[in-house]
Fold this protein.
Amino acid sequence: MARRQIIKIDEDRCDGCGLCVPSCAEGAIQIVDGKARLVRDDFCDGLGACLGECPNDALSIEEREAPEFDEAAVAVSRRKAASPPPAWPDVLHRHGGHGHPGGGCPSARILDLAPRRETPQPGGVSPRAPSALEHWPVKLKLVPPTAPFLRGADLMLAADCVPFAYAGMHGDLLPDHAVVIGCPKFDDYLEARARLTEILRVSSVRSLTVVTMEVPCCLGYLRMAQEALSASGKDIPLRHVVIGVRGDLREAGGSASWGAAIPETRKTS
């Protein structure tokens, strides 16, 4: 232990937006129970790279007794985060902390979903619009990098609030895309980034579209996608679509159209 400078998080000011998490390259900050927490004192170098990311001024530097910054442990953690995810058959048996002896979990079984016909409804009710989803699973942590539906696909990474806010998801955004979903606020950032990196590296995905809500915490997915694309070594278009909380469709930057490429977010060095 030594008396040194280290990050302090004001829990009353923190709203759990998560913007500080990707700015901490050492992985010392994570979202726990809806609040930013300094989960590893020895991972915090006290330099304050995260300070300018918080919209609520919940981060500051304090001087207190803390373990010395452990650069070697940080390096090990980074290597683990960047390592390929487990082989898919292994994930089938132990994902989510539970096993399935003799077979994979039904929620993770790869399915090719044939186009659906409109379902007749009784009493003259208009038929439901068909689903545009063409594969299963869709959760990022469940999709294997070798999944057949990723080959040559235009991939969409969508925050899982998007389909609830945007009524046109199946008509406007999902057609002709493979999709993976998750929550940029509550998913493990390093684990999600490693999985997306491996998907981009292994598969022949030809473009990546990131669809987020307008809330600040969702921006973590855009940064994660940029980092994953850079780490994958691929040079493919990266697009960003923003959905308003009232269900309006926006392009990053305020345009009413969607899907326009953001030039500076092609593969970054």
The two ends are 37 Å apart (CA to CA). Residues 85-112+131-265 form a domain with the Rossmann fold fold (CATH 3.40.50). Helices lie at 20-23, 71-82, 88-94, 162-165, 169-173, 189-202, 219-232. Confidence is low (pLDDT under 50) at residues 87-97, 99-103, 253-269.
